[in-house]
């Protein structure tokens, strides 16, 4: 399974989001620090879910980090998060 | 001194600290560059800590805040967030309020200009 699908699956499972988009934008970072051949290094995630409603910004990010788990987090270089 | 003690004393001794890849004048990563750029532009007096210069610190700061990414911004000893959070707070005006409430000087007009340019 590709990393995009893996991230999507974990987030769907954890938050039952009303909106979710996961984009691998590694190519736009080609040549920068953290770029790895084959991409799957830089991701942009937009997620909207009722679960985030009463959380602070930091709590929302922490919840997403937890849902993805150390395995995913340690394998990617950058994760842009827009959480609503 | 352990990395933990070093971090604790840095964020105690300085009102605003950015743990980043590279330095405020020569950032080594786009995300660090963006946060340092906002603070520089807003005229915030901040201490920059280059985690690339010290492996113990690079891991230590992630353990300290239980936050997996860099950059990390601290104001008055408190962890504020990384690039996404600081960007959102800049555009919403929350960063202005946080700095005001913390007694940290900054250029309000410059902050407004950032918002106008990204509105």
On the 0 to 100 scale, the average pLDDT of chain A is 90
Query: What structural class should be given to the helix and strand makeup of chain B?
Result: alpha+beta
Q: Approximately what portion of the residues of chain A adopt beta-strand conformation?
A: 15-25%
Distance between the termini of chain A: 27 Å
The residue ranges of chain A in which pLDDT falls below 50 over 5 or more consecutive positions are: none
Number of domains of chain A: 1
Query: Which radius of gyration of chain B do the C-alpha atoms yield?
Result: 14 Å
Q: Radius of gyration of chain A, Cα only, in angstroms?
A: 13 Å
User: How does the helix and strand content of chain A classify structurally?
Assistant: alpha+beta
CATH architecture label of chain B: 3-Layer(aba) Sandwich
Weakly predicted, low-confidence segments of chain B = none
In total, the number of strands of chain A is: 3
- In CATH, the topology of chain A is named GMP Synthetase, Chain A, domain 3
Range of helix content of chain A: 25-40%
Rounded mean pLDDT score of chain B: 96
Walk me through this protein's architecture.
The complex is a heterodimer of chains A (84) and B (119). Chain A is an alpha+beta fold and 84 residues long. Chain A has one domain: BolA-like (GMP Synthetase, Chain A, domain 3), CATH 3.30.300.90. Chain A contains 2 helices and 3 strands; from the N terminus they run αββαβ. In chain A, α1 runs antiparallel to α2. The N and C termini of chain A lie far apart (27 Å). By secondary structure, chain B is of the alpha+beta class. Chain B has a single domain, classed as Glutaredoxin. Chain B has a 4-stranded mixed β-sheet, sandwiched between helices. In chain B, β3 and β4 form a beta hairpin. Chain B is globular.
């Amino acid at each position: 399974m590709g990393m995009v699908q893996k991230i999507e699956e974990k987030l769907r499972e954890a938050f039952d989001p009303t909106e979710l988009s996961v984009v691998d934008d590694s190519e736009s970072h080609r040549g920068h620090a953290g770029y790895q051949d084959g991409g799957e290094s830089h991701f942009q995630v937009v997620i909207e879910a009722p679960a985030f409603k009463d959380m602070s910004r930091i709590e929302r990010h922490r919840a997403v980090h937890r849902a993805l788990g150390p395995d995913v987090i340690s394998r990617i270089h950058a994760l842009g998060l827009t959480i609503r | 001194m352990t990395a933990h003690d070093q971090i604790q004393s840095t964020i105690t001794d300085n009102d605003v600290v950015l743990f980043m890849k590279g330095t405020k004048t020569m950032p080594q990563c786009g995300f660090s560059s963006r946060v340092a750029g906002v603070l520089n532009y807003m005229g915030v007096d901040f201490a920059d800590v280059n985690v690339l210069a010290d492996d113990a610190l690079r891991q230590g700061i992630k353990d300290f805040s239980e936050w997996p990414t860099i950059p990390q911004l601290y104001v008055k000893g408190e962890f504020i967030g990384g690039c996404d959070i600081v960007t959102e707070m800049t555009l919403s005006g929350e960063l202005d309020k946080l700095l005001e409430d913390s007694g940290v000087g900054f250029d309000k007009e410059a902050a407004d200009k950032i918002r106008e340019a990204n509105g």
